[in-house]
Amino acid sequence: MISVDEAVTRITAAFSALEGETVVVGEADGRVLASDVVAKHDQPPYPVSSMDGYAVRAIDVSRSGAKLSVIGTAPAGHPFQGTVAANQAVRIFTGGVVPNGADTIVIQEDASEVDGSVILNAVADVGRHIRNAGLDFRSGEVLARRGTRLKARDLALIAAGDCGAVEVRRKPRIIVAATGDELSLPGATRRAGGIVASSGYALGAMIERWGGIVSDLGILPDTQEAVATIADHAHSADVIVTIGGASVGDHDLVQKALGPRGFALDFWKIAMRPGKPLIFGRLGSTPLIGLPGNPVSTLVCATLFLRPAIAALLGAPTDSRGTTGRLLSPLNQNDSRQDYVRARLELQNGEQVVEPFAVQDSSMLRLFARADALIVRPPHAPPAKAGDRVPILLLD
Question: Which residue of 19, 73, 257, 388 has the fewest CB atoms within a 10 Å radius of its CB?
């Protein structure tokens, strides 16, 4: 068996960033940039008012009570075309371009307009209530860097930089196939001794959240002929993921079925719990990750190994969900396998605390659905008592 860290290293080393494609900004949420995004203009492009009021010369309002002639207006999007001269003012509104000659704004609350003139009952310094050109960013500045997974706020910034389209990584194509004669779909008739296939639904949703596109081959029976058909789809995938077929006997089935079709094993079995029987290799040139069949094992292993693989294909860092929390109840000494203990997380007095569930069977999805985090127990970790700080991995 190899360690979790070694498994992650060997898996991620098998992937490199995919090619880029251009999408419009409105379709780029959650996508990963393949190149830097550079502003095409200053923002704002020209000095604008941050308040409703009057654009004037500061020298003309050096004392309260100055009376100026109003020579025009400057609403947002309709700049005043003339120049403000001595003892003149332009009625201006938020976002309006500051007219030539004006160098300050007196807000409307400090002004009284009568018969074409305005009395300004305040003193205004140069630059008051003016947003200078380029206050937010300058033309040529990088607004978002390659490898950034775009958020809604990023889209607003990119659009403000006059960039209507961006180059992002192509979404990885992930083929998923479950194996097992005992499996049936929800709502379908179950055979004697059968169970409902469940983890594939979560796996598909996780892959899409991580940036991939899922192609589901469904449930394959436990025969060499059925498993061998996975190879027919390898050419169209960036990653092949199997669910189940990772125990000792099934591992032999995978090799017998896919070996003649070009499967080469890299490693099998990781010193972890849950999820020991994980397969990794290549089917031709396409990496294959064989997840264990127990539902919790499937999803823990996907989080630990498939997620960073997809991040590598997207040229993005894997978002770290690692943190720490205080134990609410003790944990026993650990053995030679790294444990991932399902736990409930809450805040107490501003501090994260974790309560491990008493039962940790890898088939129990109900507790996994209720869990907020996994407590990470390194190999041979000594007993931990209530109040100890332990490493945790956030699930959401």
Answer: 19
